[in-house]
Amino acid sequence: MNNIADAIRRMAQSGRQTVSMVCTVDVVDKDARTIDCTPIDDGAPLLGVNLQANQDSKWGVVIYPRVGSYVVVGFVADGNAGVVLMTDDIESIEVVVSDKTSRVVIDEERVRIDVGEETSAELTKDGVVLNGGELGGLVKVEELTSKLNELIDAFNNHTHTLMTGTVNVAGSATAQSNAAPITVPAITSKHTKVSRGDYENEKVKQ
Length: 206
Fold this sequence. Notes:
206 residues; five-stranded antiparallel β-sheet; 13 strands
């Protein structure tokens, strides 16, 4: 930031003026954070035009224009390199505070957010992936609550039939048929139903 302020101060003190021109983008170099472009007045191509005030910086906001789109390039009248001031159509945007705080990358396919080293979210047309998605999909809370309560109702109301009397296993079928069936009543200590608040994480919603 101090370098930028010093540069502006030196330009103001020297009386130099800045100029700008409209160009079309020919090449985008995301590694160098520069573009090559051609002025629309058919002037000589501009090579290595900066997309960021300080090309040595790894932080800040960088807007990558789309090849073929229009940009406004500004530079000091006697300078050899310019910087992109405005863009007509963008391919992606990168916002970096620092490696240990937050980074956001936006393009046509996704929005990727990283906070620190362990927290991330990626949004695409297919859905949202949190922290790499290793734990699988989020549960549908209403459906899960309904299914759990169906099982609890079945457990609470369950009855079954037992045969009473003495059964002679070695005897005839007639002798065994003397045993009388009885129905065992449902359990007396019933399980309480669940509610979504028992397991819902309200900080993450879908």
